[in-house]
Predict the 3D structure of the following.
Amino acid sequence: MSDRVVILTFKVLVIPMQLRFICATGIFFLLVANTYAFVANIFWLNIVSHIGYFIFAFLLFFHRSKAYNFNFYLFLSLTVISYSLELFNTFWVFSEIAILLQALSYLPLSLEATRHFKIKNLSYFMILYLISIIGLNAYLLLLHINEMKTYISGDVTTIIYTFYYLNLGALGVTAMVYYLNSFSKKAMFFISLAISIIFANVLRDMGVFYFKDISVEITESIIRMSSALFLVLFFITSEKSLKLDNFT
């Protein structure tokens, strides 16, 4: 009986600790490899390190795998597939398909956040604030899409990018509404995830449509990689309001 207890304890405590150590080490080396990929201009290493980072981030909290649901696996699958297709971005329309899959990957994130919405009675000031922020972001988004049209050739590509940024804008609005109506740790991780994705895409567009700068590319990559950690932390964290009594 005691041997069974020892074996069970080993499986419950030691194996997850070993897996977390391996994943944490892997994440560190992937971050180094990704930075080196930009310095040495190794495109495939950049893509592979991103894919590996999402996988290691997933395995880092594998002991909490019961917290992962269909929306998580759908986002992770679409993200990994889209990054994989970028390895073949010079062939056929793989680049456009990769962008389309990334756009679709934001939908399950928004759907997952709405599952935790608990809309409370908002003041007129808060309603006006939300409408103003949403309107401002919509205006800036339309300006950005209109600006990109001068750099994009083809109506299909324009439609894909428009769809992409509309989903990205919807993700940002969803994160903001979720956080303002929740003030929970889970909502904090989600809005951090959304901000990471949005900022990473803004920095990426600077290199794609305007000018390339290695410091911007490295910053974009680090921010995009951090979104993997915010992703798993959002899903494994329970919905519990933060203690803000002293600030209200």
Observations:
- DSSP finds eight helices and no strands in the chain.
